[in-house]
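To the team - pyridoxal-5'-phosphate complex, inputs and output below.
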Amino acid sequence: MKIEEFTLERIQSLYENTVEYNLSDSGVHPYSLRELLTPEQQSQVLDVELGYGWTNGRVELRQAIANLHPDRNADHVIVTNGSAEANFLLVMSLLEPGDELVVFVPNYLQIWGWARAIGVDVKEVLLREELGWTPDLDDVRKAISHRTKMMTICNPNNPTGSVLSRETMDGLVAIARQHGIYLHADEVYKGAELDQDEPPSFADLYEKAIITSGLSKAMALPGLRIGWLVGPAQEIYASWQRKDYTSITTGAVSEFVAEIAVQPAKRQEILARSKRILRENLALLQRWVDANGDLFSFVPPKAGGMAFIRYAMSMNSTELVHRLREERGIMLLPGDVYGMDHYIRIGIGAPAHHLEEGLDRLAAFVRTELK
Ligand SMILES: Cc1ncc(COP(=O)(O)O)c(C=O)c1O
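Output:
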């Protein structure tokens, strides 16, 4: 099996830990265990037994995740190592060579890459910038054929931070239902909406919806490596069978902490912290874009820890990003990793002074190059 390089992740893996100003993250500045847990909970961590546990996730944790949805129980949930493993199990359990998969782009291209690697025919539907990076439903209808097995969307979106309106969500559900296909949504940024209430989950709108979620992004706990799928019991069971072949189970300490984090009050506390950080940083970014409007423009994100920014300069985005890192010590993601040159992705979940310095260096570099 041949698989294309997952350039989006590869660039980060190579450089994110050595660069001075890393603005390539899409999440929120992470918690420490000390900040997250009460002293009593911290001491309970020491008593966690380091067994395998349930290979689909502790039943209490699965139930707590199911409680985030009105009509789900523990059988509708599998706990995974990050949402990355959730997406992998989804592809491996539900798609086969020759199936068609409709993918909304730009997107985190993990599912796109795995699906192509196993011989799935991937059809792309554009999120349109003029529609605030959301799809035109006519494009979706045209992309579906009798071979379409599933459509997959990232909502809130990576990299643009767009959030689908309820009307568009209902429209996608109606199309999926009409064709009897799965609707998968990666909802790992959900809960970090900046100027609106949290939208519903696709899992609560459609009987054949499957969602990926986890604690890495809106929940600011990526080091726990806890993600999950929620969907129909039979499909979740099929993904569990694949997990026997991947990681078997998640870490016992992570599951213990995750169960605390997903309790409704704690989850709201965590999301409030994320939204406070992101709102302050988005205001900072907006001021910077306004001050540099001759060079940069964007549709402000509605959720999540990143902004997708168009720049007015002929330099290719990969070259721009490598030179920024080598010459100015800042790291961004090039639009190229999404197949969209002349855009850059900037993380807005870092501490404000970090973002401010990175943005100053970016503007200074571009102005020097344009002289
Ligand atoms: C949309 C989306 N899904 C999944 C992942 C994987 O995240 P994790 O495995 O840390 O939960 C990412 C990481 O950037 C992402 O952006």
